[in-house]
Amino acid sequence: MAGNLLIVESAKGITAYTMYASSTTIVWSWTYDPKAIAVGSAKIAVVTGMVASSHPTRSLIIPPKHPNLLVVSRGSNDNFNFPFGHINAARSNIKVFDLTSIPNGGYSYVMGGHTAGEGLRNEVGLTFDPNTKFVETIRTLENTY
């Protein structure tokens, strides 16, 4: 209980990985030392350029079968998100970034990575379907009706 983060996985037990977190504009990475149970002090920008908006939803997940990929979802700007498809808007979408070749200063969310889905506003969680291996989204209540 000393402020440490422990990850418990079914059939694996307690494990530790490189740590990722996001503000509304940047995805950060920290190294994690599982022996010392400590997060490194230096952070690395992995993805930058997510414009802060009225919907600050950012969801991150690493595919279990592809630990070199980071999937990032960015929410919409408002309830009527007509320009979501405009390349410079880069919102209401899910993008995938290769962690093995992060450019200096991080990927640009707008121009970098690969688009995995568009028109997906305010996803509050991401998971992988165990049968199809496709990304599934968990939508906010406001998007279910």
What can you see in these coordinates?
The model is unreliable at 138-145 (pLDDT under 50). The chain has one domain (7-143). It is 0% helix and 43% strand. The chain is mainly beta and 145 residues long. It has strands at residues 7-9, 13-15, 19-22, 27-33, 38-48, 58-61, 69-74, 93-98, 107-108, 114-118, 123-128, 135-139. The strands form four sheets. Strands 3-4-5-9 form a four-stranded mixed β-sheet, with no helix packed on it.
How far apart the termini lie comes to: 41 Å
Total domain count: 1
Which series of helices and strands comes N to C?
EEEEEEEEEEEE
> Could you report the average pLDDT, rounded to the nearest whole number?
76
Residue stretches low in confidence (pLDDT < 50, at least 5 long) are 138-145
The counted number of beta strands is 12
Radius of gyration: 16 Å
Major beta-sheet overview = 4 strands, mixed
Helix amount:
under 10%
Count of DSSP H/I helices: 0
How is the topology of this model organized?
Blueprint: E1 7-9, E2 13-15, E3 19-22, E4 27-33, E5 38-48, E6 58-61, E7 69-74, E8 93-98, E9 107-108, E10 114-118, E11 123-128, E12 135-139
Parallel strand pairs: 5-9
Antiparallel strand pairs: 1-2, 3-4, 4-5, 6-7, 7-8, 8-10, 11-12
What does this entry show, briefly?
0% of the residues lie in helices and 43% in strands. The strands form four sheets. Strands 3-4-5-9 form a four-stranded mixed β-sheet, with no helix packed on it. It has a four-stranded antiparallel β-sheet with strand order 6-7-8-10, with no helix packed on it.
